[in-house]
């Protein structure tokens, strides 16, 4: 579910929030980082729970139409294409998924049903919904495309839902774009023959990625003074405020990877932190960071320091 860039971003956020010192016991802060990473999976599950509730809402809506005392013929025979949507039924009928959602207490939409109502109304009034009901095409691929479209165009951009997630858990605001990407990728790959676990991807690709998160966090803190000194030697003409900002933190993390992770190529590290800087820091940050890191790598290589091991490494 998480790739290395997602992990780097969560480590960056935890380091930014860190108020201790190199000599402190980092156990509590490491737990905070791992909890922050784990909460991304909770957000993913809560969105699937939301899709389940929207599916239930469609059934309730059609049932109420059919039971209207003064209902029209159209009311008595409502279009059930949405409630019959194959992907929504796969999600709702996935016992393993629903059990995990229940155990983690993530189906809070029963209490906060107004958000389900708002989203269902927006979906029902959309041109996407109208076109879907009036199209004779059916099958899983068509149903998947519809759900992915309404999620992308109606659910994910909804400001009230965004604010709700922010109030629910502050870190979810930054996690939302990442989780959305993962969710759409997973939904796009669902097949009729898929096992229930298809909707439950592992949080980490492997144990190495989990250890990478812990090690990058701890080693950046434990070598903070050393990295600060190394950066300051190469930034005499730069504003000290820039070094005290997020840019300085990203440089320290990059130096940590240069020195403490011999299997990660210099080029990979530089590219990752340039992309993170573009997204989270100032417009000029990537140029600043690239200039410093490029200079560091050239010095390391000319002095045979911190050599990288493995195939395809700079």
Automatic annotation (TrEMBL):
<dbReference type="InterPro" id="IPR011605">
    <property type="entry name" value="NusB_fam"/>
</dbReference>
<protein>
    <submittedName>
        <fullName>Transcription antitermination factor NusB</fullName>
    </submittedName>
</protein>
<dbReference type="InterPro" id="IPR035926">
    <property type="entry name" value="NusB-like_sf"/>
</dbReference>
<dbReference type="Pfam" id="PF01029">
    <property type="entry name" value="NusB"/>
</dbReference>
<keyword id="KW-0805">Transcription regulation</keyword>
<feature type="domain" description="NusB/RsmB/TIM44">
    <location>
        <begin position="205"/>
        <end position="298"/>
    </location>
</feature>
<keyword id="KW-0889">Transcription antitermination</keyword>
<comment type="similarity">
    <text>Belongs to the NusB family.</text>
</comment>
<keyword id="KW-0804">Transcription</keyword>
<keyword id="KW-0694">RNA-binding</keyword>
<dbReference type="InterPro" id="IPR006027">
    <property type="entry name" value="NusB_RsmB_TIM44"/>
</dbReference>
């Amino acid at each position: 579910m998480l790739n290395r860039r997602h992990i780097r971003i969560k480590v960056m956020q935890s380091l930014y929030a860190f108020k201790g010192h190199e000599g402190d016991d980092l156990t509590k802060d490491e737990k905070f980082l791992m909890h922050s990473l784990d909460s991304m999976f909770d957000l993913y599950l809560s969105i699937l729970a939301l899709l389940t509730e929207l599916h239930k809402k469609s059934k309730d809506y059609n049932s109420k139409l059919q039971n209207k005392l003064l209902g029209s013929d159209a009311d008595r025979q409502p279009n059930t294409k949405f409630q019959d949507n194959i992907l929504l039924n796969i999600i709702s009928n996935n016992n393993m998924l629903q059990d995990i959602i229940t155990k983690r207490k993530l189906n809070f939409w029963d209490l906060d049903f107004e958000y389900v109502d708002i989203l269902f109304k927006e979906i029902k009034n959309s041109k996407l919904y109208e076109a879907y009901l009036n199209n004779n095409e059916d099958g899983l691929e068509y149903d998947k495309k519809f759900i992915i479209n309404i999620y992308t165009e109606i659910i994910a951009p909804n400001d009230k839902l965004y604010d709700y997630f922010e109030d629910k858990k502050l870190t979810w605001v930054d996690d939302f774009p990442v989780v959305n990407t993962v969710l759409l990728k997973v939904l796009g790959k669902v097949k009729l023959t898929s096992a229930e676990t298809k909707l439950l991807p592992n949080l980490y690709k492997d144990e190495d990625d989990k250890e990478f998160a812990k090690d990058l966090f701890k080693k950046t803190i434990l070598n903070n003074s050393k990295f600060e000194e190394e950066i300051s030697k190469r930034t005499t003409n730069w504003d000290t405020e820039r070094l005290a900002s997020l840019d300085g933190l990203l440089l320290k993390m990059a130096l940590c990877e240069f020195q403490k992770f011999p299997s990660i190529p210099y080029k990979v590290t530089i590219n990752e932190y340039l992309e993170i800087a573009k997204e989270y820091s100032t417009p000029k940050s990537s140029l600043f960071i690239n200039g410093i890191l490029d200079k560091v790598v050239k010095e390391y290589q000319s002095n045979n320091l911190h050599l990288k091991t493995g195939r395809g490494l700079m």
